[in-house]
Fold:
Amino acid sequence: MLAELVGVPASRVRSWQQRGWLVPVEQTHRLAQFDFLGLTAARQLAALSRLGASPQLIAKKLTEIERQFPDVQQPLAELTLILDGKTLLVRRADGLIEPSGQFRIDFEQLDSATDDELPATLPSPAVLLSRNGLTSADQAAPARLAAWAAELDEAGDLRCAAEMYRAALAAGGPQPELCFQLAEVLYRAGELAAARERYFVAIELDENYVEARANLGCVLLDLGEQELAVSAFTGALASMETYADVHYHLAKTLDQMGRAGEADVHWRRFVELAPESPWADEAQERLGGP
Structure:
């Protein structure tokens, strides 16, 4: 829902959370929940990304801002960041200033990576491993492999990202979070059957992984398996009844199956839980008005 509100893919929001830029106010069964500060931070990140700021560059500049403004706990939520051409400015009560109070943050390197940034064209997983003195997956730290996978994902190289997630799993053994992330990459790459299996593995490892159950339901719908999708959505709600998105997807699925009476229950619950959702108008229309 946060991704819908700021106009980015859900995978981007997850990446921001993994980097520590978005801090959930609560996590229930691995499902992150954000407040207004989280929404504010996500909007700033989405705007910077649309203007061409790479994740590596944003990370570097945020470090500089945090060093200069130690009184600010959440820069992305508490400060207004403005990209002026290729310069990042901070708006505070005393006006537009540069993070140091005097000098400007230089964005002239926006299009050229530094030594510790990813190149424009990412090498294959095998090259990344050998470049760092690693000849096989079991010699690499799983966390580092997972970080590379996330970077490849952000750069849009879904095939290599999937390979790197598999390497991380081979190095460290099955982990629900990594299985979920691999499933997400496979889903967006159009490999629905493979994504379905990875979601199943994530759930087998953590039966209360509600987001995995929800996304499994969506994959099953794409595969034309409506009854199984209903089971997946129902399972997610059994772990977390307040998961608004699942009520929405389940309501739509039940309508498509001609089970309008059952769907009504979930449409109403969705509106109760998420009246400000981008999908709330659709739900109200389906229910026959406000």
Observations:
- The radius of gyration is 21 Å.
- Confidence is low (pLDDT under 50) at residues 102-124, 130-140.
